[in-house]
Structures are given as structure tokens and as C-alpha cells.
Design brief:
The protein is α+β, with helices and mostly antiparallel strands. It has 8 helices and 24 strands. Its main location: endoplasmic reticulum.
């Protein structure tokens, strides 16, 4: 009986691991700085292992195990907790990490106020870091901790669990560039700023710079602390300003209000997003056909009534499966040739989960068109699909014999023809009679 009970518990544990895996794979390579202890991040790493991830740890300067072999990544996800490392193994360079993203390998990177190779990597993703040695500081709220250990409120985001408690942060902020692929996750408090001194000796300079609003000044809520980046291939990267954000110390540390910090939940939500557990969508298939038909034709004719259907699913990390998803309400379909000729909403079909359908009329223009669906929202997987279809003009036997709008022209042509015929008949008939009379007169003489 005891054996059956232990077996049941083991089965449930294994089932729990299977039910919470990533949509892109479960192998994780962790590059951990020698100055950091794995035990100090047991809550974060242990939570990943309980979710079913297979974690492999490696020192930044070690060449084994390799991240990739012959251009093929060996891991689905890579975590870089290397705030003090200034030199890496040959297979870890900014270029190789960018190449991993192109192969659908996700990255979780912790930055630091020190100048490291990861600093230059962040600039490749449109993140602008302050000069080295200028961490984020804040004197509010009043607390016994130093100015560089800051409680930060968590804003609402589809990436994060609602009502997450504030998190402790210590590290470097970054300004956000103009890249549309950036996904802000955690922003700095409005009263915080980046400086190289924890006292207020430079408060006058800070105040004047704040009034001027000059470029290059890192202060206020417009700067980021944790920012995501999603590529066009839907691989994801997250840049966190400090590795302490994921530590056991900050996860257990009480907030100034007395509440427990939200670091543990926040770190888990960030990992779930970057590992493509959450907000992961895909287009399963698309269909198009004429109204009252079911098969896709080889070509359409101008002014045809076309029905377009798309089937979309979302990844459910609880069951490790893809399920129909009808939560998109602002998706559009474009029927385009160089420029969109038709742009129309593609709404979900009520009562049919995951199905989106719309009917429209093909334009009165022949050529090679594309049915294009492109949906991009921050945090969600990008949806894009293209189907090429030709549109031809009517054949010679498809035109109507008579056009109702042309009846006035028909009537004018017919009346003109009839009038010309009557006039010609009367004219010719009159000339013949006159000639006969003249001929009779000549003979009588």
C-alpha cells in the first residue's frame, strides 16, 4: 500500500512536470558567474526544474557543454547570469547570441552596472545603458536599505500575474530605443535616477537635467528595468537590469509595507514569457473559397464574393498543448497587390473557438493578389500568413448580353437606325416615281 502511494505521488509529480513545459522546448543552459552561488537562486532555478525544465549549468569561460554545434543550438533556452564576467568562451559572443535568436533559442540576460560584453549586446536590441558605474538610485520610500536597493511597483501587463506585489530591484536601468519589437515589462519609479554616488551631492545637476529633459539622462518612469524583445521569428529575449532580482534574498525580503515581495512570482512570469509558455499564438491553417463553395479555386474572377477563414490556437502551458483561441478582436485581412485594395476586419466566429472568418468582394481589378494577415501586439506572438491568388477578368462569354444601364444608348441607336431606314426608303421611292413620269412625257412627244 505504501509502495502504491509513493508511486502515485511520483506519477503526479511527473505529470505536473509534463503539463507545464514550454512550447519551444525544455532544455536550458545556465551560464552562472563563478562569483554567484547556485544555492542563492534556488527558488528560481528550483521552480524551473519543478515545471519540467532540464537545467544544465556551465561557467562562462568553459567551452563545454557547447551552446551550439555546426550552427545548430543544443538548447532551447539560455540564461546568462554573469554580471561580473568580462570574457567568455569562444562560443559566447554578442554575434553568436543574436544567431541563437534566429534559430528560435530564447535568452534571459541579467545586466549589471559594470561594462561587460553583454552591455554591447544590449545596444543591438535598441537598449541604451548609462555610463558604467551608475546604478539606479532612489531615496523613496524611506527604508533602512541603501539607495540602490529599491522597491518597484509592478504595472499591469498581460505578461505578469495581476496584482503582483512590488519587487526589490538593484542594478542598472536602460533607456528604450525606437524599436517596435521592444516589450516593456518593468519600469523604474518616477522618483528614481541613475547616478554614480548614493548621496545627494549632485542633486543640483540632476534637477537641472530633469528640467531640461536632455537626451542621455536616465531618470523617471520612462526608463526600463526589465525589458523584453521579440523577433520576427517569435523568439524572445529579456534583459534584466540586475541579477539580484531573481535571488532568494529578494524573494524572501519583506517590503517597507510589511508585505512579502513579489520577486518570486515576477521572476516566474518573466521566465514563462521568455520561454514561450505564455502569450504564444500560432495560425494553424487558412482557407479561402467563393461563396457557396468549399474548395479553393485556382483563380478568382473580378467581383467574386470570397470567403476567407483562419484558424488560430494558443499554447496552454497547463496541458502542454495547443488550444483554439478566439480572444483576438482587432485582427484584419488585407487583399493586396502592391497596395491593399481591400482591408477588412477578420472577427472570430461565435460558437466556433479558434475560427476567424470574413466575406468580401474581389476588386474590379485583375492581377496577382495576396491574402495577408499580419497581427502584432506587444507581448504576444506575431501572427503572419500570406496566400497568393490570381484574379482574372471576365471571359468573353461571361459578360452580360445587355446592360441595364445602357438601355438609353440602345434606344438611341435603334431609333437612329429606324429613322435612317425610313428616310432612305422614302427618298428612294420618291425619285423612282419622278423618273417614270418624265419618261412618259418624252415618249408622247
Amino acid at each position: 500500500m505504501r509502495f502504491l502511494g509513493s508511486a502515485l505521488v511520483s506519477f503526479l509529480v511527473l505529470a505536473g512536470k509534463v503539463l507545464t513545459k514550454s512550447s519551444s522546448g525544455d532544455s536550458v543552459l545556465v551560464l552562472l558567474d563563478p562569483s554567484l552561488s547556485r544555492a542563492n537562486y534556488s527558488i528560481f532555478f528550483g521552480g524551473l526544474e519543478q515545471q519540467g525544465y532540464d537545467l544544465t549549468f556551465r561557467a562562462p569561460k568553459h567551452a563545454s557543454p557547447a551552446i551550439a554545434e555546426y550552427g545548430v543550438p543544443n538548447y532551447s533556452h539560455v540564461i546568462l547570469f554573469t554580471p561580473d564576467t568580462k570574457s567568455y568562451a569562444p562560443d559566447v559572443t554578442p554575434q553568436s547570441l543574436v544567431g541563437l535568436l534566429s534559430e528560435n533559442t530564447n535568452l534571459l540576460i541579467a545586466l549589471s552596472p559594470r561594462q561587460t560584453p553583454l552591455t554591447s549586446l544590449a545596444t543591438e536590441f535598441s537598449l541604451i545603458l548609462p555610463p558604467p558605474g551608475t546604478p539606479l538610485l532612489s531615496h523613496h520610500p524611506k527604508r533602512p536599505e541603501p539607495a540602490n536597493v529599491i522597491p518597484v511597483s509592478v504595472s499591469e501587463s498581460p505578461i505578469l500575474t495581476p496584482d503582483t506585489n512590488p519587487v526589490w530591484f538593484s542594478g542598472v536601468p536602460h533607456a528604450l530605443g525606437n524599436s517596435p519589437y521592444l516589450v516593456p515589462i518593468l519600469r523604474a519609479p518616477s522618483e528614481s535616477f541613475a547616478a554614480d554616488s548614493t548621496d545627494d551631492s549632485g542633486s543640483g545637476t540632476i534637477l537641472s537635467a530633469s528640467d531640461k529633459g536632455g537626451e542621455g539622462f536616465w531618470a523617471g518612469s520612462h526608463i526600463g528595468l526589465v525589458t523584453g524583445f521579440q523577433t520576427t521569428k517569435n523568439s524572445r529575449a529579456v534583459f534584466a537590469g540586475g541579477v539580484e532580482l531573481f535571488s532568494d534574498e529578494y524573494a524572501k525580503k519583506a517590503l517597507p509595507s510589511g508585505q512579502r515581495s513579489g520577486n518570486a512570482q515576477f521572476a516566474r512570469d518573466v521566465a514563462a514569457w521568455v520561454f514561450q509558455e505564455t502569450l504564444t499564438l500560432r495560425i494553424d491553417r487558412t482557407e479561402h473559397h467563393r461563396v457557396n463553395e468549399t474548395a479553393a479555386p485556382e483563380m478568382y474572377t473580378i467581383n467574386d464574393q470570397i470567403v476567407y477563414t483562419a484558424y488560430i490556437s494558443a499554447y496552454d502551458r497547463k496541458t502542454s498543448s495547443w488550444k483554439p483561441y478566439s480572444g483576438i478582436t482587432d485582427m484584419q485581412l488585407e487583399f493586396t497587390m502592391l497596395d491593399p485594395h481591400v482591408r477588412i476586419a477578420l472577427p472570430p466566429v461565435s460558437g466556433e473557438p479558434g475560427k476567424y472568418e470574413v466575406q468580401f468582394r474581389a476588386p474590379d481589378r485583375h492581377g496577382v493578389f495576396k491574402l495577408v494577415v499580419g497581427w502584432r501586439r506587444k507581448g504576444y506572438s506575431f501572427l503572419h500568413t500570406t496566400t497568393t491568388v490570381p484574379v482574372v477578368p471576365l471571359r468573353h462569354d461571361q459578360y452580360p448580353r445587355f446592360l441595364s444601364a445602357a438601355w438609353p444608348y440602345y434606344a438611341g441607336a435603334i431609333s437612329t437606325s429606324v429613322g435612317f431606314f425610313l428616310f432612305s426608303a422614302l427618298w428612294l421611292a420618291g425619285d423612282v416615281k419622278g423618273e417614270k413620269k418624265n419618261l412618259k412625257g418624252v415618249k408622247s412627244e
